[in-house]
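Aim 2, interim progress: modelling of the magnesium ion-bound target.
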Amino acid sequence: MRPAELNRYFADLTSLPGVGPKTAALLQKVAGPRIIDLLLTGPTGLIDRSYRPKVGEAILGRVATVTVTVTAHTPPPTGRRLIPYRILTADDTGYLTLVFFRAKREWLETRYPVGTSLTVSGTIDDYGGARQMTHPDYMLRPDHDETLPEVEPVYPLTAGLTLPTYRRAVAAALRRVAPLAEWRAPPLEGDGAPPLPDWADAVRTLHAPQSERDLSPSSPARRRLAADELLSNQLALSLIRHRRQQIAGRALPGDPTLMEGGRAALPFRLTAAQDQALAEIVADMQSPARMVRLLQGDVGSGKTMVAFFALLQAIGSGVQGALMAPTEILALQHEETLRPLCDRLGLSLVTLLGRDKGPERAAKRRGVAEGYVPLVIGTHALLSEDVVFRDLGLIVVDEQHRFGVTQRLSLQEKGRRADILVMTATPIPRSLALTTYGDMSVSQIREKPPGRKPVATRALPTTRLDEVMSAIGRAAARGDQIYWVCPLVEENDQLALTSVTERAASLADATGLDIAAVHGRMSPQEKDAVVARFARGDADVLVATTVIEVGVNTPNATIMVIEHAERFGLAQLHQLRGRVGRGDKPSSCLLLYSTGDGEQLGKTAKARLNTLRETEDGFVIAEADLALRGPGDALGTAQSGQARFRFGDLSAHKDVLEWAHQEAADIVRHDPYLDTKRGAALRTLLYLFGQDEAARRLRSG
Ligand code: ADP
Ligand code: MG
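Predicted structure of the complex, ligand included:
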């Protein structure tokens, strides 16, 4: 249960004085539904009204506060609604026209009669040689001058929501803020650094920036809130991890003979990196605690092989193993890889897909339920489709970069006592690994199997499309295959992007090659059929949009063309490139970029393409990606399941994150159920930052 003292923060926005349902709905759009959301949505800018020039000296286009006297009123001619109402004013240096569209004439006339002295604040512009201010933000009599704020915060708005309304709501919300028991100890700041404010002060200061510096992530208020937010994130993950360790898993001792047999069945030896990762996994599986481990490694680094041996470890212990892929085609591809190995080892393997029907499906499921099928391959739906296992001991989840903590928790619950191995081909920088997968142990494969040739990577402007087309024609003539990737076309996308179907048609026209195309409007079955045709070698070119669609292993594909490469994230580009260079032929990746109307390629885009040309190390690329794009994009999309922060900035707050990580580990070591006085304060923190899941689970189970 959420502590009662927090109710004031979790009340609906309508409970604020002056905020009705209409305003609340608008505020909800930009901040969120509850008071806490408003409080924790910081201003994005500020308006400085302290610039007080004379009218004649005012810098045009800048917000200024001037004191003037009303000299005349010029209302628009009757019936001419489009002509504004003007109030002419002046000081001893010049004239300033105040402009009002659709004004209430009587109101202006009675309120600001000729001769009135006024302090007005707003942007001064030039209109046909005359200085004017359209709809001043403030018009005060000089005796009310002190009510003019020197600096005002600016918030993100939406249609129908004005800044004054927003600020009034924030002010009302701030009146609810009361001190909370401090959860932070020891202080984060090093010697000599100014102490950070407490939570309540930090929230107040957040909404009262005095200068640009106060808006930066390094301002004391924002650092404090970032520390709170990152601590809540790290604490939640540590608690989840701790709780999992409390639930009995079981020891899977494995069968050395089966493992040896597996190695003997391979046409190659595992690399040192694979052996190391496998050793870490096997150690986890052999221990009675439950394994939840992340296996990271670039596309083609040999994760699937490592997973296979983990599955053998389970099978050798007399329990079943399941391997889950994100799409049916990838599940089938895994089957194709593992079937010969299983045959050699005399292990029975089934692949369960949604498309299986009738008696065949029933027979497969019976085999799994009765336990004489030890190895099951399927899609992520495997566990939700109420497939019954006799005794599931290991779940391997492949390519799960769309998996968040919550999904992991549900998997963990459905899998009963099974160990979990999550494989991701997205190398993740430490900061992201900590915040997104902090509840898991991590193994990395940083070395590729021997014999891989580097992929020659070139960036070319779209204007050289013809050259690219003839190059792929030549490659196809040699018997090579080509991937051609177009960016996803989102609805309402103003940019003229080449869609998959158009490109497939123009490629067919220009090259006469056999083109296969997959696009978003196809059903999963249709997509799979097309991809399978390409994988069989029955098409020369596969035109597609996403990583998953080209996720199949086609060693014969030697060229990857990426159109509008400037629109993809680094990590995505790297993933795509990883689809070629898998065979023994030299391969290349062509990054086609478009510079719009003859403009220069943006700085970031250029840096991104350069990084890609310079290295093939996914971890180096991931760090660069994070630095270039900010954490929001580093995994490609918003649905990547990664933690999102209001204040935590993984480049500006690296030190804060490390602190939070240590601190969380420490807390869980000493107070795993948050029973102490400080523990109670920390529960509050978890709720404040939306980690209810972790807080609720403290007692249950
Ligand atoms: P990932 O799952 O990381 O993308 P895979 O396990 O699919 O990588 O391996 C990619 C390719 O490399 C496969 O064709 C696989 O057979 C091969 N491979 C894996 N491990 C090795 C190894 N140690 N030596 C040589 N080839 C390997
Ligand atoms: Mg794989």
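The two ends are 15 Å apart (CA to CA). The chain has a mean pLDDT of 86.
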